[in-house]
């Protein structure tokens, strides 16, 4: 078994046949409608630490899940087992649940007329012909570069190269069937710096659908090392109210919380602080949030959503105003709105940004906290109250002064969104949310 | 051969044409030159969940997952592969992949199997089958209706019931051969309340390694509902939490999340072998105030974090981690115990056959002290009382940890006064533990809801502690 034994587009016809077999079995057992997803994945993950191999892991996962309906009653079941008996038993398990579930007027497949008809190819499949030996070599080179960067890098917490390929097919009893093969490769490096009795860890990584396009291993190692070393001597600052600059890699989290708050599931459960805000100005006027689901090779691209609806480009926020919630078929019905083809999430979100890079935003901030690390959950989705552990750098006169740790930052997300002063041009490309660093006018920093 | 071993092997091995006697041969193939240790982990898991929302039972799901994980170790190197199929062919293919990490070295060999006598901490029956589907649905509906009747301010109620039944078999080159059957159930109630346009959520639940009848006994399910409502109503009145450094009193029970983060993770053997924990090399040293004695105990009957044997076939135990403030030892799996030259402590755990074992906590708690909880509150001039927590997180290298409050109050002049909004608290493990100045006589364990994440693997755990006071810790509110 090696990672080069390919799971790819050639596996799709067999998976499609399996989906059809499961749908037939559900009909045979009496389901009035059903939807089925089948997946097959394989991967190799190699980790090194302190210049030695630590683990070599081979993954191979398969499974299917079915959701079926008896009129307006619904049941689901899934399994990693294969074969005709597993199909029969899994369908029977879902059916037994549906028989006992309550009638739900919003339950059921999306309307047949809405099913995606054309599925554009998104070029998501790029297998990487890398052997375990080559993977180990790259990981070792990455870690060696980290050790060579600074003498204060005394320890390592693992450098991992992973390569994964998989296939997924979704079909339902309206006759929709769609599938795709995709790949995902990553290289991550975690280093530990030590000086004056203090240890600090930090990391860097890259991820890409194309292995050859991953950032250079040496560069990733050096960046991890520099980040860890720059944390040495970190200390709390006194409690204060100051501007806060979220580094791009963390700013993605602000928008992901926003998407959560405008998602149908939280809205119909009355669990969102943004309930009833459609049409309201939630961000500054220059800010827009756009979904672009069909970008070739992008990490979040998809041609159809979890209900079989065609995904499409749209704006959730334009000129700072909320134009649309994030809805699937079910949550849309609960709210009396059409689905936005977002069952399963938002596919590539773009945040509008200005011309300034992170250094320019630090200058613009003048005095405040640059946040490069966040800890804990700390968001109350019902009220928008936000409070999290943070680490980063103290900024005075537009320049970084010293590393900061053991502080918290707090505010209310509605205020934070309104108080976004600027989004940087330093775009985070490793996330399905594409944003630069985000400068927020004012938050409470609690410290010593 | 024990009855459990027989029944588990009949279920896991026989359908694929395998028998226990053949495992020795597979391990022999694995234990070639250069391999120090190897093991096979067979697992079959059935699980289900039922969710009631908007007054109707909307969803139920059922999952069956099974497979075998094959691991080979050479020095500090580990090779690992797994398969969904439990057959001789799949096993030998996974074995070849796992042993590809071996380099030249000593000839490996397989010890004769021996099965230790293990005390079962929970019943082996399938917890999903003790009541039928109609009864499960009825239970959810009853709790929903009774909860809605409690208070007109309730706008939304979500009730869920979940159960897992795991059957595992471990065979290793060191001769370990063991089987375990593990039930795990959970019940949760969440409510949204509204008053004068302000909304808040409250949630509570519980469970353990038992079956669904547990929730029907002693009015437990409704107890969770009343507690969820109480917390939500308290939060309706909450004012902004202060920002800055204050004395903090942590309530008994679930607040033990503090220990899990501030102490527990930093004492897992892997981090200490690698020297990446800020507790590394500190055995015998003072790492907490003298009032602190902290244990990890996997042997408590029917507790969520308990295991009769761990996922490497080692019997669990009660391990003293810190005694009167002195660091006594770490939690170990076999690999880290071997490399550090100590005995395994029964903490080798894995999420499933598709994951590698690591040192993990079971039930981690602090033993009771002598102070009256009331007296602890009275001793604080201005501070915070944390009655309930959300989750937490730790960076074991720098020692920084956080946890967020879900029910907290101001303490003013020795009295609990206004409730405050949820806030994140941040501290440094050994520093915060050295500032524990009072420990209550009211040790309590949590109700059975904890899940711990490490390296992407989730396992059920327990926490507990008596009421305790930390003289200074940073509170992340927005008020003054």
UniProtKB/TrEMBL annotation, chain A:
InterPro entries: Metalloprtase-TldD/E_C, Metalloprtase-TldD/E_cen_dom, Metalloprtase-TldD/E_N, PmbA, TldD/PmbA_N, TldD/PmbA_sf. Residues 34-98 form the Metalloprotease TldD/E N-terminal domain. Residues 125-232 form the Metalloprotease TldD/E central domain. Residues 239-447 form the Metalloprotease TldD/E C-terminal domain. Belongs to the peptidase U62 family. This is PmbA protein. It comes from Pseudomonas cuatrocienegasensis.
Automatic annotation (TrEMBL), chain B:
The keyword Membrane does not apply. InterPro entries: Metalloprtase-TldD/E_C (IPR045569), Metalloprtase-TldD/E_cen_dom (IPR045570), Metalloprtase-TldD/E_N (IPR002510), Peptidase_U62_metallo (IPR051463), TldD (IPR025502), TldD/PmbA_N (IPR035068), TldD/PmbA_sf (IPR036059). Keywords: Hydrolase, Metalloprotease, Protease. Residues 244-477 form the Metalloprotease TldD/E C-terminal domain. Residues 127-236 form the Metalloprotease TldD/E central domain. Gene3D superfamilies: PmbA/TldD superfamily. Residues 38-102 form the Metalloprotease TldD/E N-terminal domain. PANTHER family: METALLOPROTEASE TLDD, UNCHARACTERIZED PROTEIN TLDD AND PMBA. This is TldD protein. The lineage of its organism: Bacteria, Pseudomonadati, Pseudomonadota, Gammaproteobacteria, Pseudomonadales.
């Amino acid at each position: 078994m090696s990672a080069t034994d390919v799971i790819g587009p050639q596996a799709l016809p067999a998976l499609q046949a399996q989906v059809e077999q499961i749908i037939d079995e559900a009909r045979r057992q009496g389901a009035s409608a059903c939807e089925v997803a089948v997946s097959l994945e394989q991967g190799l993950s190699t980790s090194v630490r302190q210049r030695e191999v630590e683990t070599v892991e081979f993954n191979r996962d398969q499974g299917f899940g079915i959701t079926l309906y008896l009129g307006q009653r619904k049941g689901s079941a899934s399994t990693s087992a294969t074969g005709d008996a597993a199909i029969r038993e899994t369908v029977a398990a879902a059916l037994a649940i549906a028989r006992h579930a309550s009638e739900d007027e919003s339950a059921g497949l999306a309307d047949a007329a809405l099913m995606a008809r054309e599925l554009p190819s998104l070029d998501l499949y790029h297998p990487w012909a890398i052997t375990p030996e080559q993977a180990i070599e790259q990981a070792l080179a990455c870690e060696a570069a980290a050790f060579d960067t600074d003498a204060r890098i005394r320890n390592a917490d693992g450098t991992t190269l992973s390569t994964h390929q998989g296939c997924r097919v979704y079909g339902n009893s309206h006759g929709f069937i769609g599938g795709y093969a995709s790949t995902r490769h990553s290289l991550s490096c975690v280093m530990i710096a030590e000086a004056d009795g203090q240890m600090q860890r930090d990391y860097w990584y890259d991820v890409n659908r194309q292995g050859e396009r991953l950032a250079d291993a040496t560069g990733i190692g050096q960046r991890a090392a520099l980040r860890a070393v720059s944390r040495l001597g970190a200390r709390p600052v006194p409690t204060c109210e100051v501007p806060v600059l979220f580094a791009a890699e963390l700013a993605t989290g602000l928008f992901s919380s926003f998407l959560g708050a405008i998602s149908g599931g939280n809205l119909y459960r009355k669990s969102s602080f943004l309930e009833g805000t459609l049409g309201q100005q939630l961000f500054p006027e220059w800010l827009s949030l756009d979904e672009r689901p069909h970008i070739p090779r992008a990490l979040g691209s998809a041609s159809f959503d979890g209900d079989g609806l065609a995904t499409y480009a749209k704006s959730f926020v334009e000129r700072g105003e909320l134009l649309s919630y994030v809805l699937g078929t079910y949550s849309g019905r609960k709210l009396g709105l059409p689905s936005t083809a977002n069952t399963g999430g938002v596919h590539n979100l773009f945040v509008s940004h200005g011309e300034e890079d992170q250094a320019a935003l630090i200058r613009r901030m003048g005095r405040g906290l640059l946040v490069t690390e966040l800890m804990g959950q700390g968001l109350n989705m019902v009220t928008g109250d936000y409070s999290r552990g943070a680490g980063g750098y103290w900024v005075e006169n537009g320049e970084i002064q010293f590393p900061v740790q053991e502080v918290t930052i707090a505010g209310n997300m509605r205020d934070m969104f309104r108080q976004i002063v600027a989004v940087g041009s330093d775009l985070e490309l490793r996330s399905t949310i594409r944003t630069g660093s985000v400068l927020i006018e004012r938050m409470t920093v609690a410290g010593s | 051969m024990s009855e459990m071993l027989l029944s588990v092997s009949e279920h896991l091995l026989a359908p694929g044409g395998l028998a226990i006697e053949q495992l020795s041969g597979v391990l022999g193939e694995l234990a070639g030159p250069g391999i120090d240790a190897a093991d096979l982990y067979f697992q079959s898991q059935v699980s289900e969940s039922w969710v009631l929302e908007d007054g109707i039972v909307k969803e139920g799901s059922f999952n069956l997952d099974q497979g075998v994980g094959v691991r080979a170790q050479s020095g500090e190197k580990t090779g690992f592969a797994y398969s969904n199929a439990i057959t001789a062919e799949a096993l030998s293919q996974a074995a070849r992949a796992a042993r590809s990490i071996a380099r030249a070295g000593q000839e490996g060999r397989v010890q004769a199997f021996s099965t230790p006598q293990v005390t079962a901490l929970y019943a082996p029956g399938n917890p999903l089958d003790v009541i039928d589907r109609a009864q499960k649905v009825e239970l959810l509906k009853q709790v929903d209706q009774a909860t809605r009747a409690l208070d007109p301010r309730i706008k939304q109620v979500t009730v869920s019931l979940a159960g897992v039944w795991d059957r595992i078999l471990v065979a290793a080159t060191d001769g370990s051969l063991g089987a375990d059957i593990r039930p795990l159930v959970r019940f949760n109630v969440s409510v949204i309340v509204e008053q004068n346009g302000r909304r808040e959520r409250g949630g509570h639940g519980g469970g353990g390694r038992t079956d669904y009848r547990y929730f029907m006994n002693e009015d437990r399910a409704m107890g969770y509902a009343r507690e969820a409502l109480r917390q939500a109503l308290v939060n309706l009145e909450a004012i902004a939490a202060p920002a800055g450094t204050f004395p903090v009193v942590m309530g008994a029970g679930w607040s033990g999340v503090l220990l899990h983060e501030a102490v527990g993770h930093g004492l897992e053997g892997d981090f200490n072998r690698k020297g990446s924990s800020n507790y590394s090399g500190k055995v015998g040293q003072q790492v907490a105030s003298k009032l602190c004695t902290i244990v990890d105990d996997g042997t408590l009957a029917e507790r969520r974090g308990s295991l009769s044997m761990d996922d490497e076939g080692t019997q669990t135990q009660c391990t003293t981690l810190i005694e009167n403030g002195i660091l006594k030892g770490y939690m170990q799996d076999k690999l880290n115990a071997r490399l550090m030259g100590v005995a395994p402590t029964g903490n080798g755990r894995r999420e499933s056959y598709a994951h590698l074992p690591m040192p993990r906590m079971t039930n981690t708690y602090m033993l009771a002290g002598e102070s009256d909880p009331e007296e602890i509150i009275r001793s604080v001039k201005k501070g915070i009382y944390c009655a309930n927590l959300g989750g937490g997180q730790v960076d074991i290298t720098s020692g920084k940890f956080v946890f967020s409050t879900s029910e907290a109050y101001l303490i003013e002049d020795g009295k609990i006064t206004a409730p405050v909004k949820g806030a994140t608290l941040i501290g440094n493990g050994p520093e915060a533990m050295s500032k524990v100045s009072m420990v209550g006589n009211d040790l309590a364990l949590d109700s059975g809801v904890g899940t711990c994440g490490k390296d992407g693997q989730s396992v059920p755990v327990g926490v507990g502690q008596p009421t305790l006071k930390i003289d200074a810790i940073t509170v992340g509110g927005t008020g003054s």
